[in-house]
Amino acid sequence: MNRPAAVVLLSGGLDSATVLALARRDGFDAHALSVRYGQRHSAELAAAERVAAHLGAASHRVVDVDLRALGGSALTDDRIAVPVDGVVPGVIPVTYVPARNTIFLALALGHAEVLGADRIYFGANAVDYSGYPDCRPAFVAAFEALANLATRRGVEGDPIRVVAPIIDWSKGRIITEGLALGVDYALTVSCYQADAEGRACGACDSCRLRREGFDAAGVHDPTRYV
Amino acid sequence: MNRPAAVVLLSGGLDSATVLALARRDGFDAHALSVRYGQRHSAELAAAERVAAHLGAASHRVVDVDLRALGGSALTDDRIAVPVDGVVPGVIPVTYVPARNTIFLALALGHAEVLGADRIYFGANAVDYSGYPDCRPAFVAAFEALANLATRRGVEGDPIRVVAPIIDWSKGRIITEGLALGVDYALTVSCYQADAEGRACGACDSCRLRREGFDAAGVHDPTRYV
């Protein structure tokens, strides 16, 4: 008997690897989708490929979108420095990429429609990144509403669900639950400025939040640092 | 005094050229955004460039998104033929590109956020293409709601508007109003399978709808056919 299909947005980082494991646990054939969007840390994409294979994704596609043409973020504009001085509550950091999650979910929606997938799994997390507007539950709910107005299957009364299962989890909980599902976090890359071999800087906000997560989970941090 | 800014999605076709003229008439600095998405009819992008210059766009950017990686449409998959046998009411045609307008609007949203633009102009038309789910007013309204949950300016209480001014206009009305604003439709390309010089096939649905529009407007059809 065929399992239902889901599309999983997979960045190669810790959060989306966990979400891929959750999609598999939930009984879906998980079709991973990564986006090459001009990010500095392209080592993430190599990590995504390893993670997709490791966690038994049914497929893995990479879509190219040149967000550098739009600019406006430290992650896609070499003239803006990656901050290393901490997340400020209530302030949107310069690592925010304008409309990135809207764009990624739109691509996932197109992929889901072609595959006939029932769900989109999205690794947004509102706890560590409270400054990113497109990581909040209201955003996810609005995208699901849009998705069902935008597509054939929504029109035909067979709605797609957009889920963000770790949106309110702490980094420690994400790691604890992922380890229980067999996720090997040594394969993942979270650093905003990882080197070509995927080694982390240890200084950027993403590195610090990740390290704090392993501390909170009380487990060894398998990250390779430069 | 600075005029407010708007982002205009510009395909190079008849509809979006008219919308660019409407944005200018409405008093906006119009920043045109085109998408190279693997469409067969890349002559449209050359047309977009001509139209942007002709109508005085403040800027024109082209973003690359490889929707061929997702497949599923006659416009992006060479194995699916472009239909020439007419639009069937209530049936979504194979020229529908999954989630295309969601993806385009998401890119426009990112561009608008970087520019600080107040509006996104979107040339959807529900009359001629009633089979496309993402050309309906409810879809546009849902995207506007999403946009204001997704972005800094929405969070900060300065909402962006997403407008589709020709959504309920007939092709004849679009042409009539565009001509009154000085649009030169000879610069535009609508054909789904135009040749490299932008000459139209005259047979596809898009060509037929366009020709019927010039007939309805009672004006000469300036389209160059093969």
Short key terms for the protein model shown above:
226 residues, Rossmann fold, 36% helix, 11% strand
In short:
The structure is a homodimer of 226-residue chains. Chain A is 36% helix and 11% strand.
Write down the CATH class of chain A: Alpha Beta
* CATH superfamily placement of chain A: HUPs
Radius of gyration of chain A: 17 Å
Instruction: Tell me which protein chains meet in the greatest interface and how many residues each side has.
Output: A-B, 44 and 44 residues
> What's the helix count of chain A?
7
Oligomer: homodimer
The N- and C-terminal alpha carbons of chain A lie at a distance of: 47 Å
Overview of this structure, please?
- The structure is a homodimer of 226-residue chains.
- In chain A, 36% of the residues lie in helices and 11% in strands.
- A 5-stranded parallel β-sheet of chain A has the order 3-2-1-4-5, sandwiched between helices.
- Chain A has one domain: HUPs (Rossmann fold), CATH 3.40.50.620.
- With 226 residues, chain A is an alpha/beta fold.
- The mean pLDDT of chain A is 88.
